[in-house]
Design goal:
Length: 255
């Protein structure tokens, strides 16, 4: 079994668990003032972490709900067991599972799975990006004015002025629309698929972005931080685009 097929199979198992939980249970807890977590986030993470520990016991893991497994290893798995928990908890049908693998500083593979639509987005460095059996390519939208883009807001939105509101208002007026769908990993997969022309956000975590970022790169898109400088999963201000509108978007964010 390759590492990619392992990640795909594991994401599918976690997806089944999410669908099952959606039909049965809906207990929510607050992690902070606005961030909810459900028992399904934890169950999904336990399933994924257990699978990695069984199959790759020497690999390190960083997962959102506390599944940090330290190992002296160049391999690090970045796991978001349920991206879009707020949506999930309210029954809004836009959430995903995100699994990425890095070797030292290099992203090797990324999988984002939308179990409701049975869309499995996957990418391997140098081998392209896919949705199920279909090769992905970013859009050819040439200008910001003709684009549909997406963003998100941090959980500490209400307590800080650096919360993306000004940028959101500006971009809403200069594009054909800004979507705030609530799963950064799936937003990035949609950029890779050409359904969105760009996504920008701040205060994202490595488990939110790593898999989706590789999807965008392998679909021919561009990644940077908000200033246009090189981005890595530990940089919390991401711009991911089809490449063609990237500079215009960076300039608009910086105003
Ligand atoms: C959140 C989602 C959301 C983004 C937040 C993330 P979670 O992740 O990706 O779209 O705006 O910044 O924290 O908590 O649902 O896994
Ligand atoms: Ca997340
Ligand atoms: Ca999550
Ligand atoms: Ca969360």
């Amino acid at each position: 079994m390759t590492m990619l097929s392992f990640a795909i199979e594991t994401a599918r198992c976690a997806g089944a668990l999410l669908l099952d939980g959606l039909a049965r249970r809906r207990t929510m807890e607050l992690k902070s003032a606005y961030e909810v977590v459900t028992e399904i986030d934890r169950d999904s993470e336990a399933l994924i972490v257990a699978a990695i520990r069984r199959t790759f016991p020497d690999h390190a893991i960083l997962a959102e709900e506390g599944g940090r497994v330290e190992r002296e290893s160049p391999f690090l798995w970045l796991i978001d067991p349920l991206d879009g928990t707020n949506n999930y908890a309210h029954g809004f049908p836009f959430f995903s599972i995100s699994i990425a693998l890095m070797e030292n500083d290099t992203l090797l593979l990324g999988v984002v799975f939308d179990p409701l639509r049975n869309e499995l987005f996957s990418a391997e460095r140098g081998a392209g990006a896919w949705c199920n059996e279909q090769r992905l390519r970013v859009s050819a939208t040439p200008t910001l004015a003709s684009s549909l883009v997406s963003t998100g807001f941090p959980y500490d939105y209400a307590t800080t002025a650096d919360n993306n509101t000004r940028q959101f208002t500006r971009l809403q007026a200069r594009t054909q629309g800004v979507r705030r769908a609530g799963s950064a990993a799936l937003d990035l997969a949609y950029v890779a698929a050409g359904r969105l022309d760009a996504h920008w956000e701040l205060r994202l975590k490595p488990w939110d972005t790593a898999a989706g970022a590789l999807l965008v790169l392998e679909a021919g898109g561009r990644l940077s931080d908000w200033r246009g400088a090189p981005w890595n999963p530990w940089n919390d201000r991401l711009v991911a685009s089809n490449g063609r509108i990237h500079d215009e978007l960076i300039a608009a964010l910086a105003e």
